[in-house]
Amino acid sequence: MLLMVLPITLMGQYRSQVWSPDNGDGTYTNPVINADYSDPDVCVGPSGEDYYMTASSFQCTPGLPILHSKDLVNWEIVGYALDKLYEGDGKLIEHFNTPQHGNGVWAPSIRYHDGQYYIYWGDPDFGVMMVKTRNGDPAGEWEAPVCVIRGQGYIDTTPLWDDDGRCYLVNGWANSRAKYASVLTVREMSADGTKAIGQPVIVFDGNGTENRTCEGPKFYKRDGWYWIMCPAGGVPEGFQLAMRSKSPYGPYEHKIVLAQGKSAINGPHQGAWVHNKYGEDWFVHFQDKEAYGRVVHLNPVDWSSEWPIMGKKGEPVTTYQKPKTSSTVVVNPAESDEFDGATIGKQWQWQANYDEKFGVPTAFGTMRIYTYKMSDVRGQKEDVPSNLFLVPNMLLQKTPADEFTVTTKICFTSKADGQMGGLIMMGLDYSALVVKRVGRAFQLLQLTCHDADKGKAQEEKLIATLKPTAEDKIDYKPGIHEDIYLRLTVTNAEAGVAHGGKPIVHFAYSLNGKKFTDCGDDFQMRQGKWIGAKFGFVSVETDAKADRGWLDADWIRVEK
Fold it and tell me: Which of 50, 228, 338, 424 has its CA 20 to 30 A from that of 506?
């Protein structure tokens, strides 16, 4: 039997082998989540130390991830607020059945109000959306989404319930739809937060100043002041503003409260200010790491003066004392999956609205992913699209660290020529190691595509020709099977001139799980549309009429 080191678990809580920010001595090291939880927002529940995070999920489903922490350092994925985009409106469900890369859920905010948790977000094509818990448990069921304001261009929305029960909403604007940007508007909402009852007022204008690209606003009230925390200056190179006014409609005075300075942490901005029951203040935000996506950092906040000062004298920290907490549990977002249960791990997402024909768990300890017919891909002119960019049934997860190794054991079953499946690193460029049926054998191929979003054709590199490990003996629609171990390793060529300092993916395979053979060309990892690169499973075919084949994933393990 093949023995491999499994991730450490305690009562279902996952311990990562590749990145854990808790240093075990009362300190932490940023990022607290070294994965692409873009545009994170956090609120604290009524306990004062139960923190809940959500983040942009764009077209991926399930959407609106919900993460929980007791100390803002140790996080785990506990659920999702959206099963599909969007269950509250049938017309939008059909729209998102095809991958809409970079569209969908932008920069959500999560708030606790009157016994329920609410999440607001802007869909730049359809308007301001809202979803709330059904029973006050963020890890439980959420109600169907409500469209609060219909229209194009609305992004980055945050509500504020005032002391008198009135509700206000701040939002940014997407230049790609509205044809203007760098302004923030505030309007009044109904007390239940379900519709706008007032007209928008521009409360901040960053046009023509260093505060260009002001967006991602978060709305708060403290000591009689209305506060808007807002990034500006661009994404990778920008900074964090704090704005204050005695009226929700401004005018707001502003000040830079967090910037890169002399640190190595670029563009520290867009996130959440949280105040815990111990009287501490913290700021959770992202850092843009290109191919890895936007990873999550934690910085202290000092309110001893009139303005909040974030980090250490306005610069982000790398290592710092942990927030006070009653918890000693070390836990990280899930990565590996043994596929032993009736449900798969919460780290997995599809590329579009889920269809049960994409795949389902089995009673045999595997996750089955059926071959998706490339002729069903919409949005391209060819009968059989030339690349995988619009394939919806890829089962993917975020990269968890700068360097890591992913190994999976699969059995691929083919009913017809052209059916293929394997392990992929997906972005605007992608590369995959797959087995493909050709006649009575399988070819092991590396599929690579550059500028997949622009419709460029993928290239195939033959690695080996493999005999099936099993063949069906019956006459009725027999299949052939290939058991194989596939591996990808990500290394960070920080000082590598040849690859421009970018993360590099190396592939390998094994027929027995013991001896692995390096194969294929090194691949320079590249981010997706507004998200980091993601890895996981691909299973497709070119025959429109054949019975589907399938990939059975026995397990997938993420290690150093």
Answer: 338
- Please state, in angstroms and rounded to a whole number, the distance separating the CA atoms of residues 219 and 272: 9
278 residue type, one letter: Y
pTM of the model: 0.95
Note the pLDDT tens digit of each residue in 16-59.
999 999 999 999 999 999 999 999 999 999 999 999 999 999 99
What is the pLDDT at residue 496? 42
Give the tokens for residue 269: 């901005």
Cα–Cα distance measured from residue 509 to residue 375, given in angstroms and rounded to the nearest whole number: 29
Length, in residues, of the chain:
560
Q: Hey, is 443 helix, strand or coil?
A: strand
Q: Which residues pair with 255 in a beta bridge?
A: 242
For strand 183-189 and strand 201-205, is the pairing parallel, antiparallel, or unpaired?
Answer: antiparallel
Q: Cα-atom radius of gyration of the chain, to the nearest Å?
A: 24
Give the mean model confidence (pLDDT) for residues 192-213.
97
C-alpha to C-alpha distance for 341 and 284, rounded to whole angstroms: 33
- Report the alpha-carbon distance of residue 58 to residue 64 in Å, rounded: 9
Q: Contact at 8 Å (CB) between 69 and 325?
A: no
What's the CA gap between 519 and 522, in Å, rounded? 9
Cα distances (Å, whole numbers) of residue 158 to 240, 244, 560: 17, 16, 39
CB-side neighbour CA atoms (13 Å) of 294: 24
Express each pLDDT in 505-554 by its tens digit: 999 999 999 999 999 999 999 999 999 999 999 999 999 999 999 999 99
The separation between CA 453 and the C-alpha centre of its own chain, rounded to angstroms, equals: 19
How does 431-450 read in b/e, with b if 16+ C-beta sit within 10 Å?
Answer: bbbbbbbeeeebbbbbbbbb
Using the structure block, give the residue that is written with the tokens 């350092």.
Answer: 73
> Please, are residues 335 and 400 in contact by the beta-carbon 8 Å criterion?
yes
Copy the structure tokens of residue 204: 């901040």
The token pair at 78 is 């506990």
> Which residue from 416, 541, 537 is spatially nearest to 480, judged by alpha carbons?
416
Task: Report the C-alpha gap between 489 and 504 in whole angstroms.
Answer: 8
Asked whether the beta carbons of 550 and 544 are under 8 A apart, the reply is no
**For residue 216, which amino acid is it?**
G
Cα 241–chain centre separation:
25
Distance separating alpha carbons of residues 71 and 21, to the nearest angstrom: 12
φ, ψ of residue 290 to 5 degrees: the values are 50, -110
299-308's contacts with Cβ under 8 Å and 24+ in sequence apart are 299/30, 299/258, 299/268, 301/273, 303/222, 307/242, 307/244, 307/255, 307/257, 308/242, 308/257, 308/273, 308/281, 308/283
pLDDT at 9: 42
Please name the residue that has the structure tokens 């854990």: 20
